Structures are given as structure tokens and as C-alpha cells.
Amino acid sequence: MPQPNGVIDLQHLTKRYGRTLAVDDLSFTVLPGHVTGFLGPNGAGKSTTMRLVLGLDAPSSGAALVNGKRYASLPRPMHEVGALLDAGAMHGGRSAFNHLLCLARTNGIGPGRVSEMLERVGLAGVAQKHVGGFSLGMKQRLGIAAALLGDPGVLMFDEPVNGLDPDGVRWIRDLMRSLAAEGRTILLSSHLMSEMALTADHIVIVGRGKLIAEETVQELTTRYPSLEDAYLALTAGSLEYGASGS
Amino acid sequence: MRMAFSSEWLKLRSVASTYYALGSAALMMLFGVGWTIYVSSLAEERGSLRAAAPEEGFLPLVQISLATIGVLAITSEHATGMIRASLTAVPSRGTLLLAKAAVVGGVTFVAAHVVLLVTYVAARLIAGDRQLGFNSTGFSDDLPLLFASGVSVTVLALVGLGLGAVTRSTAAAIVSVVAMLFVLPGIATYLPQPWNSRVASLMLPNLVPQIAGDRLSSRLGDGLLSPGVAFVALISYALVALAVGFYFLWRRDA
Amino acid sequence: MSVLASEWLKIRSVRSSHLTVSISLGGILLGLGLAWMAVDMYDHATPAQKPGARLAELEEVVLMVPQLCMGVLGVLATTSEYATGFIRTSLTAVPKRWPVMAGKSVVVGVIALFTGSAVIFATYFVCRALIADRFGGLYQIPFTDKLPLLTALALTVPVFALLGVGLGSILRTASGSIVVLVGAVYVVPIIVGNLPQPWSDLLGSVMIGALPHEITRDTTTNTVYGSLLPPVAAAAVLVTYALLPLLAGTWLLCRRDV
């Protein structure tokens, strides 16, 4: 069952790597029931923000809370939060099924659910194949299956459309919208503005680690000719690369 | 903890490198049999001789092979980026490292003792009543050395795991294990007396004979540690490496 | 030429190269420390003990450090390209493939030659200065008499490095290659040393550690290995250690899909 009230809440979140500020006093809230697009130029701090939410990186100050708690304090986190950060991040010598089962077991999820998710992302036919031979698109699908394993109420996807074919792009769009329609919280980062305009309801734009805009797609497209124009106008001042954390 | 353990167990079973490492350690049995057949044939010609016991002579092979299991348990996750998925699934870094240590420790403990015992028994069976030197003592006399040898393999694997967590690099961690196993003891041997036996007594591979109450080598003579102290020192190697590894895993961003 | 320049840049720009070279050079400090300890011990010994005080040639003890580090440098020069997938870019840039291996070998070999020589000769001179006439004149042999052996010892370091390049390109994984390298240079000699005669001397004579003494017919130091090979044969064996895996690796690189 998806958990209701899934909320991602950033409070003055700041992350410093040496002298660079990757995330700079960032505060915003992601609410359930719709897809929130997370936009910003390369190096704006989107991936760092997601890593901070997941407790992979420790914030220099401020807090990132999921359902009001720090991620690391969740007893079975995969049932509350699912994330796809880096599609290539898997041992190439492991089969797709075993890769998922390794993650599933940590949260008491059984092999039945693993097969179900492989089916859902269209990888059931290659479940026993080594992931080293997968294309980027297949790895994205596997990463999405991993995020969905615990049937979490909060989902974060970092550039999930990268490497997908037109079929896959369409599939992601429908998946995101249906997950949101089930009452889940979806935070989705992407550089494809046309795609984002079709998928997201809310938009958060960051630049150089700072919040630039937090509005609905509708508000943005009323003020600007398109989401792309809105994005380019709003981020014009923050195009210089910030931290290296992509 | 139980769930993290079961996941780590599957991780270890589902990659080929584990089987290469186990296979390479299992070569000891093959070499041990070959060795015993060879020295037995020499004994036929010469009557009796003093040959090294195969489970002692080939021990470094088992040590370095199984130590890589410990190293790869963590460095392969860093190399592939899988560590981020693992830490997302198990946010408590202590739990993750402990689960890895339990699996690596258990697998290497069982594998090492099986390989050692099979080699031991096969060598004695082949030797029969020929006088080869190593087969003059009874099993109960040889047991402490066998056990210490097996434990040393597990300790090295755990040291590899800890160093892997510190260095995050397969090459660096394996080289560090190699340094502890071969380079440092080698250098210690050439220190001027009495420092050579003092330092050598503390070297990881030299703790094994000290636990069994044997001398270090013909060059160094007896070690300075009593069997009990040597055993504590051996276990400390693993605990210290794991503690340092945990500190780095806990403090650093993944 | 451009392949050489590219391989040089690749090696120069990664941290592991700086680390392995730095740790190798740290061998000189180790030699210094050992020599200082030896001198301290010798000077505190009673006059009766002094004639019997023994010391191993410290540059030979320290040699293990650059050998291992440069071997790892060679391994990483090839396996890191497989680990990152950069090998595909490299081979797209140089489709004939073998020049990539040749370029790598030259760059790694030269770095290892310089590093190894620096460690051997610096350690030798440090020890010569510190130990002076102690330990029965161990370091009083004229430098010109030691020069052939020191040169041969230094040459083993690039041999290790090229052995690493070769193993890396055959096995394509850092862990496997380093374990095999270590097995070949540490585990095998231990086993060979345990063999009954005549095998211990026969096989001991072809161990890398035995070759410098055989090449130079050096009698100034004791070796734990055999010493049966004539100089030319020993030199040939040393070259084989470097070239055989390298040729096998190049052949595989040219044949295999990447």
C-alpha cells in the first residue's frame, strides 16, 4: 500500500564541498498527489539535494526530512522512499534478478515482489542476464524497478529518461503520472523541458544551489510562452557551473 | 540486521569473483596432494626426510585468495556505485559493515578450514607410514596450528574489508593486505637484532606459529608472544581494521 | 609519438600514479630508518659482539617496495581503462590497438626505471654514508664493484611494472592481476624455498629475486635463492618475465572484443 502523506521537506539545506557551496540554504516542500519537476542547469545541486535527502551525504547545515523524519532513522526505508540516482550504479557481473533481490532482502521484501517489478518495467525476459550487458535504457528500467520494490509513498528519480527510446520515454511519462495519481509524492529531475511540461504539475527550479522558483507548470506557462522559455529566462543568471557533483 | 545479513550473503553468492577466489584457495588441496606424492617418492629413494607440511607451505595462497573476498565485498560496491543503492536500502552504515563482516567472516572461516583440513588429511593418507617429517606428529598436536592458520585467513579477509572501506579502492586495499602479509614481515626479518624478532613477533602471519607455540623461522627463532597473547593480537588486527573502516564509512559522504 | 604523449598524459593525470611513485620513493626513507636503527644498535653493542654483527644489504630489503608499487602502477595502467570503459575510447582513437600497449609499456617502463633506480641508488648512498665501516665493512666495497648489481636490481623494477601491464591486459581486473602478481613474486618463492633439493636450487635460480645476482655473478651478497644460471641466461629470463605476459596481453587485446 502506498503511504499517504508522503512529504519531502527541505529546511535551509546547505552542503559545502571545500569552498564550493553545492546546495545553498535550500528550502522547499514536495507534496503528494502530483509530479514535481526538479530543474536546474548542470551542477545546480539537484543530485546533491537528492543524495542529502537519502542520507548518502551529510548536510553541512539544515535538514532534509521525509515524512517528518531523517531518512537514516527510517527502519525499513525502501517502504517509504524509493530512489533512482545513477542508473549505472550496479555490479555488472550480477543478474538483474539478483541485483534487485540483494536490495529487496535488506528490507524484508521477497523474491515474488522482485519478479513482479521486473515484469512491470519490462525486464522479465532478461531477469537472469548479467546487468553488465544491459543498455543504458535497460539499466534505467532496472533502477526504476529497484525504486518501486518497497511500494514507497515517496519516489525520487534523477534523469530517468536518459538513454530511453521514444517508447521508454512515453512509458516513464505514463508511469510517473500513474504513480502520482495513486497519491504518491514524485520528485523528478530532467533536462528535457518538453517532456517535463507533459509530465509534471509542479516545478522547482534551482541554480547554483539556490532556489530560483517554486510554481505550478500552469503558472509558469501563463507568464512565459513555454516551460522551456520559463526555464531559460529564470536560470539565465546561474549558468556558470557550480559544484562538480552532477 | 538479519535482513542485511541475508542480502550480503546473496551479494557474495551472486558474483563470479567469489568463486574465483574460492577456487584459487582450493588449489591448495591440489598442490598439497601433488607435493605429498612428490616428497613421498623422494622418501622411497632416501628413506626418510624432513619436508614442510603442505597445509603450512601453501597457506599464503589461501590467505591472499580469500582476503580478496573481504576486499571486494566493499570495494566492488564503491567501484560500481552500488554502495549508494546499498546505503539507501540500509541507511545504518554500522549495520551494513557488520553484515558484510559477518558474511565475509563466516564464508572465509568455513572455506579456509575445509581447505586446510582436506589438505591435511589427504597429505597424511598419501604419506601413509613413510617418514616425511611433517607427518610424525598426531592430529591433536597439529590442531592448534591448523586452527590458527584458518583463523588467520578470516582475520586477513576482515582486515581486507576494513581497509577496503578506508581506501575505497580494490588495488589499494589488496596492496595493503599484501604489505601486511609479505612485505612488512619480509622487512622485519632483516632488521638488526634484537629488533627483528621483536617486530616480527607482531607481524600478522607470524602470529600463527606463535599461537601454536612453534618457532617463527629458523632465522628468527622463537617468537616473543605467548599463545594466548598471540591469539588476542591476531583478533585485534581484524577488530582494529574494521573499527577504522567503520569510522571512514560513517564519516564520509557516500 | 602521439600515442606515447597520450599514454604519458593518462598516467600523469591520475592520483594512483602519484601515490605509487610516492610510496616507492618512501622506500628511501625506510632505508634511512633501517640504517639509522642498525647504526644505533651497532654503536651500543659490546666490542665482543661487534665482529659478529650481521646486516643485510638494505637497498635489497627496500627494493620490495618499488617493485610492488610499480607492479601495481602497471596493472592499473591497463585495468583502470577496462573498469571505466575508457578502453573503448582509447581503441577508437588508436584502432590498430598494439600501439596502445606499446605506448603504455614504454611510459610505465620508463617511470618504473627512474623510480626504481632512484630508490636503489639513493638508499645505497644513504646507507653507505650512515653505516660507513660498521658491520664488517659491508658498505666499504668500492662503488664501481657494486654498480653492476645495483643496476641489475634497479632493472627488476621496470620488469615488475611491465609484468603488471601484461597481467592487467590479460586478466582485465585489478584484483585478479594484483593477486597473480603477488602470487608470482611472493607466494611462489616461498613454496620454491620449501622444495627439497635439487628443485629448490633449480627453480630458485629462475625466481626474479635471484636474477640480478646471477646476471652480475655477484658474490658480494648472499642470496636465499639458487644461483645456477649463467649471466646471459639470467638476463634472458628477466626479459622474459616482462615480455611474455606483455606479448600475450597484446595478442589478446588485438583479438578480443572490448
Number of strands of chain A: 10
Helix content of chain C: over 70%
Coarse shape of chain C: globular
CA-based gyration radius of chain C: 20 Å
Roughly how many Å apart are the termini of chain C? 24 Å
Which range does the strand content of chain C fall in?
Answer: under 5%
Tally the helices of chain A: what do you get? 8
Mean pLDDT of chain C: 86
**What is the string of helix and strand elements of chain C?**
HHHHHHHHHHHH
Total number of domains of chain C: 1
Count of individual beta strands of chain C: 0
Question: Which runs of chain A of at least 5 residues are low in confidence (pLDDT < 50)?
Answer: 242-246
Query: CATH H-level name of the largest domain in chain A... which superfamily?
Result: P-loop containing nucleotide triphosphate hydrolases
Strand neighbour order, sheet with most strands of chain A: 6-7-8-3-9-10
Detailed description of the structure:
The complex is a heterotrimer of chains A (246), B (254) and C (258). Chain A is of the alpha/beta class. Chain A is built from 8 helices and 10 strands. In chain A, helix 2 crosses helix 3 and helix 3 (111-120) packs across helix 4. The two termini of chain A are 33 Å apart. The model of chain A is unreliable at 242-246 (pLDDT under 50). Chain B has one domain. In chain B, helix 6 (93-127) packs antiparallel against helix 7 (139-167). Chain B is built from 11 helices and no strands. With 254 residues, chain B is mostly helical. Chain B is globular and about 65 Å long. Chain C has one domain (2-255). Chain C has helices at residues 2-12, 15-44, 58-62, 64-84, 86-93, 98-131, 134-137, 143-171, 174-194, 199-204, 211-215, 231-255. The chains are: A alpha/beta (246), B mainly alpha (254), C mainly alpha (258). Chains A and B meet through helix 2 of A and helix 1, helix 4 and helix 5 of B.
